[in-house]
Amino acid sequence: MTTTKTLSQPFEKWTEKDVRLWLMTEVKVHETCADRFCEEEVSGESLVVFEKTDILDLGIKHGPAVKITSYLESLKKGSQHESQFPAYVKNWTKEQVTQWLLQHVKVYSKYAEQLEKEDVSGDCLVCFKKQDFLDLEVKSGPAVRILAELRHLNEKPEPTLQPIVYTSTDQAEAPNPTQPELSLAQAIETKQPESRNKIESKTDKMVGEEFEKSQLPFKEASEKKEIQQQKPKDLGARRKETVLTTVPAAKYNITVEIKETLDNLLKEDVNNFHFYLQEYTNSNHKPISLSRLEGKDTKDTAKLIIDHYGEKEALRVTKDILKDINQRELARQLENKMGQLKQPRLSKDLLKKEANQGDKLKNLLTCGGNSLDNYDRFVVVVNKSSPEQVQYLQFLNKLKLFCVLDFDPSSVAPGGLCHSYRESRVANLHTPSQYQGQTDSVIKNLNLYKQTSWVFCNGRNDLDSNSDKELDYKNWLKKSCKGVEKLVSFVCDPEVLLHGRCLILFLLLSPVDTEKDPIFEIYKAFIKHTEEESIVTICGSRSTYEKWKKMIQEMSGSDIDPRSIYELTLSEVNGTVMALGPFNQSSGRLLPSSDSSFVVLKQKDEDLLTALDILCLNQCENIYDENSPEFHDFRIKVEEEFYRGGKVKWWNFYFCDKDKDKPFVKRDKYDNVKKMITFHLRDSKDMCILFNLFHHPGCGGSTLAMHLMWDLRQESRCAVLKDNTHPKADVAIQVIKLMNLESERPTPVLLLVDDSKETENPYELVSSIRQAVRDYCNINVDDAKNCKVMILNCVRSHSPKEQYIRHNPSQFITASLTKEEQNNFEKKLKELEETHEKPENFYSFMIMKSNFDQKYIDKLARDTLENFDFISKEARLFGFLALLNTYVAESEISLSLCEDFLGIKVIHWQEDSVMDRMKRYSNVLIIDKVEEWGGYKGIRILHHSIASACLKELERSCFLKVSNITMEILQCDLFFNVGVAKHRDSIQQMLIERQQKDGVGRELFSPLIDKIHNQEGRQTVQQIFVKASSRFLTSASIPQALARYLYIKESDFQEATKWAETAKNIKENPFTLDTIGQIHKSNLISNNNREKQETSRNPEDLNTNIEIADNAIRAFKRAQELANTEDEPEEEVADDASDDYQRKSYNVYGYVGVLEIAFLVFEILSRLPFFEGNDPMRKKYFQSFLKKKIPITNVHKEENEINNRYVEIIKEHEPFLLSLKTEVKETFDLVNCYFTYTKVNNSEFDSKKHRTVCGLFKKYGALFCTAPEDMKKERQNNPNLNLEINIEEHRLFLEEKQADTFAGIHQHLDKPAEEIERITECYAFLQKFNKKQKTKETINYILSNIVLYLLKPKSKHVKSYSQLSDLLLKTLQDVGLRYPFPDPYYLALLLFWPSPTEKNSDIGTYVTAIRNSSRKHLSIFFRKRSTIAYFYLGKGEGLDRLVSKRKLDGTFKIPRDILAQLWWNGDIFKEQQITCRLHRVSGITEEGQVFANYGTLKILVRPARIGGIRHGCSRERVSFYLGFAINGLLAYDIQYEN
Length: 1538
Hints:
By secondary structure, the protein is an alpha/beta fold.
């Protein structure tokens, strides 16, 4: 009664004794557990907040802890604890739970042992949830299955549990305890049984069950105990019996395991299994025929597989097919049960060959080879080291380290491992928390792949913050363990490091005495995320290893001995690794330097130049013993790879240099390009020159460029840009560092940018390099000639000759050989026949030798694809490659993805296993190293033309269209799972990237989409885009491209708008909004054209059109608004820009869209019955309505229903319609500023937009700038109105000539003088008669006088210099220094710039005012664009001091493109025609700025070209030419006078 009464009160009020009583009587836990709660003073008030982790912290095992937690949850809810499972389960002992798990659930034995170890008896098991199993490191699959089997017990009779007979050699005290046990798979392979020092093997267990199967009925637990305590001699006899029966039992056991695995399949799944089994081709055996499988149950199927494939292969076949039918969990269970089914990283044959641990270490690190480059990356985990050990760890410098997980907080201090490493290599110091976030962002921010990441996993003693303190195990587990586990998860992510391409080294330099050590926790984290075969352990001592090995065996049952090194000293480990290839050059890598000297390129410096692949003077020298057979084999392999179609390597040029009788085959343009580059490097005054080399794909363009680099490496420091997407500013800084490396004087740099798709990116790089020179170089005049960078921009193009014509300097190469080139290729073939077997199979070489003969290529494709069957995985993979390689340059598919697709588990030192499976097509396939994404190996077709011919052949002979292959690849889940993502970029690129036209501009759609549209039309194209949009959920480009397709090709504006809105919702930027605007514009044009043809009128059409126009203008204005506010173009836009714009910058195209829509609306309105026709009155009404002079109701019209409805619609939309005229005028003025004041790219796209604007302005002039006839009549009838009408007419004339704006008057510098004379006369009239004179008109009048003087100095309308100066001074007094536009201050610089003998103390004020005003009001046009100087300071006086750019250009009789190039690179100012006309101004540089000097006056000017002045803030006397731009003064051709 007391107990009941006590426990009936609220449990929050329980005492410690009450809690103990509840545990004993209600929960029924062992007394020792209840006592622990008492000892720790757990009362009811504490119990209420207890969770499972708190109970575990009391030292209570997991089983009871879960049970107590479950009862506690019921207690909190106020309910009675109830079990969902049969009552007998609660009575099971923990041993019986183990028996049930092994015999009925068939879980992996280590999971059952773990539960037994944690005291999970039946009454605990029924309280378990999925998370409780996961906390015990039971995987999700087995956890879910255990819970399911528990529930099924309600529907089944009580299971029979048989005691487990243990035959462990530990219990038997066998005399050979160190001999490792082999798994069943190994037993089958070797046909020899092995004993073991720990828990029984699967073989022993199952053979034991056979031996005892009729003798061991289920008895009490005491009987089990007796069996376990058999005498050693009896067990010895058992072991002997096991030896005799292992091999025959193995076959039986494999059959049983396969049969029991198949029993888990549903009937439909068994049918699928049979279907895939008859199609299985990944074997030397033929597939099992369908007739043999018909009617077979799971037992017969298992036996058939064994008989057909043999014992060893049957397991692999079963597992592969289970994966094919998406039964991966069953495949994994089968793998666990049968032992090491996967191909180990080192075969047993190889391990048997190991004479000692030196060979073993070599084999572990090289996969059985001689070079460390078999693995892409190494991850090192290391604990505390001593200075004595560190001296023997130099081998880490040689490994391609991805990251080091360091548990030594003193590692960065002198004597520490990290400190030692950083003396010769670069390592960035990180914490685990820095690895959290988006994968791409982490890779970018931490510079992963490019430099080693050194991660401190338990504090850093050199930092003082609390977060960097070293923690003991308990605190580390609470505070740091989770972060380090996340780091491990990141490292093991296939998107970061491909499985099988990375090796994890545990470097134990100090003892690990207990499992309660952070480094042991990290080992457990690694084996959760990767295969144990990927982990190699190197121990500093044997004793350290023995403890480590024992802990791992107890934890996972794994034997790590085959993957561990423990008998070598660290000195021996160091020496063994350092002796492995690839070898460093003994003399060091050399670079050319000043005065024909050389410097050594240090490894640490090379580590810092992450964007550049540096070509050294002595590249390839002293790396191999060149007389050895290995070098001969290496040479044969490298040459064969290149001539088959691999990328050219420096080795190819080196081999040809060594053998002068067999030179490298050159294209004819080689000598020409070399001369041009040499000339520019020697004679150009420009510090950065861009040379474009345009070439057809696969015609040797990149090879020619690299050959040039090889031959010029003595004169310049040569490097290849590794990744074209690398930030240009960072590339520029690295190029400047390379230029000045190890030398006080600069050396010219030749930089190869290969496979560039456009020329804009390298132009951005040119600007960045110039800026970097300015910021980071302090160059003497004598050194300036060597401070140069030549960018060799190698551009793939389908129209190289047309591209060449538009760029200077440049050259082009086509897929067509001259006769001499063909002779050279014939000669090279004869040379190859002397040294190589079957050089006629070097298809890329043979294609060029045949002069790209299409018949040869087509025959090769036909032969390769004979009997092609797209159903097979190999054929599908080849089809994917043909598709990607045809439409996307550099579109390899990673080797690991191919392995997964083909269902291969690779023997990791034999990468050709993919090629073995693809043997049928391997003659046209090659494996390349890809630098992006951290470096990986990818497979591709040898040559672009072969891929293209194969696609055509598939269509011809297999009726397989490109759309079929495209849809197949989009439906393949594997291609869109984690892993190397470059192929996903290639797929997207294939769908959206448009090519340059043969002339100018780009095609409307990608070549693939164009082809599918032409072959199959809209339905197929839309299906492909819809599927692609479901694959690329975060990409706006796919729905945007579909929207463009629908409105351009199909005129389906409604559906197009839907997809454009989808794109905008994914990413709102100028380009997605512009697409919406373009759709509405096309819709409006379509409606307008249709309505022109119709004879009847429908007022509702007007309503629809106005709504469309309103939506279009909103979209264009929003696009322009975003363009004006964004600081940088968005990264996603960079590749294909907007789909509508190939340039990164949106510029003013939104404004142009607004203008186009407005004039469409004007045209539609002009066709209304009351505005239509040639009647001048109707035109007057139309003009007056749009100018808001009369309402629509006052417009004269015929009264009828249609007209009345038109009026209603116009009144409904009146605010929109009446705003158009004002908006159009303001937009014209803005666009005019852009095209007038800034240097726009000379692209056809900009030119087209400019022509559009000019055409629209002519329409504007005709509509709004002509005086109606009635105005003239009115002037005759009413003389009092004459002056007012005259003023209006003059203003209309100025507006029509675009001379009512400051920018517009500038444009008349390039027009006939008669126009500006009439304009000036108009302004003079307004100055004289307009009493309400505007400041703007006065400013424009002054500028028009200046322009007129320069064009026609003797005109009677030109005012004198003094008159203009007085008028300007008065205007400046009126406006002060805060006028909203820079115009008056610009005029002040033109007129008041002091002559050498004058002083004008106000000029500095005007310079400040123009900078402030232009920055505030015109800055949206000046971002990333430089301004134009229309006037330069000449040698005359007054207005004669001003020299126009038009006049300077007129002194040259050379083509416009050459003249433009002279202006672009600054060489124009070296020409005598310029220097004799312009005045050179003296000045000074201070604090990185340029000032013009006039006596004591210093006037701030701006260098016209980036890099115009040196870095270092040196005060130097300079001189320069002065240009006047709308945002200030520009200094040209800055010369240092010392």
